[in-house]
Write a structure and sequence with these properties.
Blueprint: H1 5-17, H2 22-33, H3 40-51, H4 71-80, H5 86-89, H6 96-105, H7 122-140, E1 148-157, E2 186-194, E3 197-203, H8 212-231, E4 240-242, H9 247-250, H10 252-262, E5 265-266, H11 278-291, H12 299-313, H13 318-324, H14 326-335
Parallel strand pairs: 1-4, 4-5
Antiparallel strand pairs: 1-2, 2-3
Length: about 350
């Protein structure tokens, strides 16, 4: 016989109806099941409940403090502004703890909002939707992703320390982290890549800025590297170039150089859209995670670290995955009516 609370309850109720004492009932039940499961105090408590008319294990409906919260008003207040704290949300309605319990029951968690690159206007959102729809139509025609070469620039800091959680004793102080200043030592990384891997990259000397002349000279070197890859059979077809709308990228000089001198096919890219730029959402995010917490004393150490990251991705599908995410992200922008992709 499987001994459960229900079984013990029924046995105690039978002993009670037979007129036995609580202690004797506990002894008889323990002898029946073969071990000391029921204490005399438990039997006395249940016998008292039986005398009061209690015959089931279930609690009476409505036991405990009655709920006095106006949940409808709480829900209306929450829908108006989801940034309110539990204290503000519960004012004149209930205790803050009650509001927190209600929100947790709904599956809500108190989280900080994410930063977005730009406060998009309705026209900019529509521009993003229209551009992504054009790119999707182009993708459906085939042979687009394998021909894309994309690029971007990112700052790489010599001091990569950031504030991170630490396991501390109750009275132990956390290790301090210096705040990064605007004039912190850094260099600009220019990175050109495709599904097949890196095409060309360089770390610019410190205090060097990107202009149209420098960018066009980089494009010439990229074109030479792309021709070598084509001769080696690593890529096929005309170069389809994807870039963002930084000023040196969209100047008349650069545009004419790409279309007329290099003969590349230039993909459209909506402004303020790093969420659909492969370098931003894929390569540079991984690079920053790779360099996080590290410090470099000189240019050579920094260059070696960047080279180590790039070499670690060779022979894997890292770069291919970054390009293959593009169609999915274009579709998300269209479905979200131009809103940013938060990930």
């Amino acid at each position: 016989m499987v001994v459960t609370k229900v079984v013990i309850h029924e046995l105690l109720h039978q002993q009670f109806k037979q007129g036995k004492k609580a202690a004797a009932a506990a002894r008889d039940i323990n002898a029946l099941i073969g071990w000391d499961e029921v204490k005399a105090s438990t039997a006395r408590r249940w016998f008292q409940l039986f005398r009061q008319g209690r015959v089931t294990l279930a609690h009476k409906k409505g036991a405990g403090r009655p709920v006095t919260v106006n949940r409808r008003a709480l829900r209306r207040r929450f829908k108006r502004d989801r940034t309110q704290s539990a204290v503000d949300l519960s004012k004149k309605l209930c205790h803050p703890t009650t509001a927190r319990r209600w929100l947790r029951k709904l599956g809500r968690k108190w989280r900080r909002g994410r930063d977005i690159p730009h406060d998009l206007t309705p026209a900019q959102k529509q521009n993003r939707v229209d551009t992504c729809q054009k790119l999707l139509r182009r993708h459906r025609q085939g042979r687009l992703l394998s021909r894309i070469i994309t690029c971007d620039e990112s700052l790489v800091y010599y001091d990569g320390r950031v504030k991170r959680p630490q396991w501390l004793l109750p009275n132990e102080h956390a290790q301090p982290t210096p705040k990064r200043l605007g004039n912190a030592k850094k260099r600009m990384l220019c990175f050109f890549w495709s599904m097949q891997g890196p095409v060309y990259w360089e770390l610019l000397p410190r205090a060097t800025t990107i202009n149209s002349d420098l960018y066009c000279s980089q494009l010439d070197r990229v074109n030479t590297a792309a021709q070598v890859m084509t001769e080696q059979g690593r890529r096929k077809g005309r170069v389809v170039f994807q870039q963002d709308n930084a000023r040196p990228h969209t100047s008349i000089q650069t545009t004419n150089h790409i279309k007329k001198e290099l003969g590349w096919d230039l993909l459209p890219h909506p402004p303020y859209s790093p969420d659909i730029a492969p370098s931003d959402y894929h390569v540079f995010r991984a690079l920053k995670n790779f360099l996080r917490g590290r410090q470099f004393q000189n240019d050579e150490e920094l260059e070696n670290a960047v080279r180590q990251f790039i070499v670690s991705k060779l022979g894997t599908d890292f770069f291919e995955r970054g390009i293959r995410k593009l169609p999915k992200r274009w579709r998300i922008v269209v479905l979200q009516q131009g809103e940013y992709i938060i990930d």
